Amino acid sequence: MFTSQTSSFQESIDVDERDADFDNEEIAGYSQKIQQINSYYAIYYYQNTSLTLLDASLPPEAEPELRSYISRRLSKGALLGGMGNIATVELSIPEQAVGCYCCLLEQEKSPEQPEADGNGWVVCLLGGSEKGLNLFRIELDKYVQGLQGCLTPEMQNLETEVMPYLNRWYEESVMHIHRVVQMLQANVGYLLHAALSHKLVEVTGVDEKTKADVARFIKAASLQGLVQEDTTTASLCKAISEDSHTSLIIDCSTSPPTLTNEVSNRFCDDWIQAFLNAAERFNPFLLRQILENFKLKAIQDMNNLKRFIRQAEMSHYALFRCCLFLQSCGNGDVLLQNARAEHSSLPEACGIINVLEEFLGENAQGTVY
């Protein structure tokens, strides 16, 4: 039983050899050490079914190909206002086939200009693969929506605001996880543990961009919203976050950064090397896939623990199996913290959790499971 769990865990980490969301050919390409993935952008004004190029960072021969692709999508009604669409496009660029995120930002409707209804701007962000961009869909949606307020038909701010903003899309929307791993290196395990256990993280001695990178990393690694959560759980998370003694403090005024109140466990530590290997390859898409696999494995373990707790209420043997599972998974402290919050209104389950906590405490011997 536990041998198969260990095997499953190893498969989750080894995403450069196999992965549920990337085929073998893509993973083989991702396994090569690369210096930089090329990224491009294009923005068009859409009016009366016609597209007018405003700016593009694509090679001259590739832009008409992209415009033709967008025109076909628009004619089929495949681009809806405010909703990003991701697909693979073949263009005259070194990559030939590339992931393309397209979004139609509709012009604000005005009674004075009824003829403008349906007009807007089509923003295209290109780089990596379709599957890679899909991992960052939320970030891309948010970044493109950030343009809405500064787009006007006259586009007087095209060179001063819009072009610089679009030129930064890859750094701002995709590379933040890579920057955090590069900064923390082997200490990234402490940040992973903080994300799973709802700990507040304070970042000092650094600019606001780096603080935002860390906050976005935590949000991406957190299970909040992905696991069952009631008001009691939310209260627990808030109490943990507000306890300054449990806050993880990252002081970036030193190199490497100095960490205070750092806590990790075997589960988080086992993922460190996978993150470091992906960061060394300079591939943010592989990094994000590893992070998603990390979360998936944590959710699977949480579901297993809940099932074992239900069984343990009726069977001492099931309680024994539950103890062995917690000891084996290496994430016992986080799983029990979440289980206690979720079962707080169930006396029998709380009794089982008390026994499990005592078991881990007696067997810890200085190691957090």
Give the secondary structure arrangement, pairings included:
Layout: H1 2-13, H2 24-31, E1 39-47, E2 50-56, H3 63-75, E3 85-90, E4 97-106, E5 120-127, H4 130-134, H5 137-145, H6 158-167, H7 169-173, H8 176-184, H9 188-196, E6 201-204, H10 208-221, H11 231-242, E7 248-251, E8 258-260, H12 266-280, H13 284-312, H14 316-329, H15 332-342, H16 347-364
Characterization of the model:
The protein contains 16 helices and 8 strands. α8 (176-184) packs across α10 (208-221). The two termini are 19 Å apart. By secondary structure, it is an alpha+beta fold. It is 52% helix and 14% strand. Residues 1-7, 16-33 and 365-369 have low confidence and may be disordered. The radius of gyration is 24 Å and the shape is elongated. Strands 2-1-5-4-3 form a 5-stranded antiparallel beta sheet, sandwiched between helices.
Spatial strand sequence of the major β-sheet: 2-1-5-4-3
Estimated share of beta-strand residues = 5-15%
SSE class: alpha+beta
* Low-pLDDT segments: 1-7, 16-33, 365-369
Order of helices and strands: HHEEHEEEHHHHHHEHHEEHHHHH
- The helix count comes to 16
Average pLDDT reading: 83
The percent range for helix content is 40-55%
Largest sheet: 5 strands, antiparallel
Radius of gyration: 24 Å
Q: Compute the number of strand runs.
A: 8
> In whole angstroms, how far apart are the ends?
19 Å
Note the overall shape.
elongated
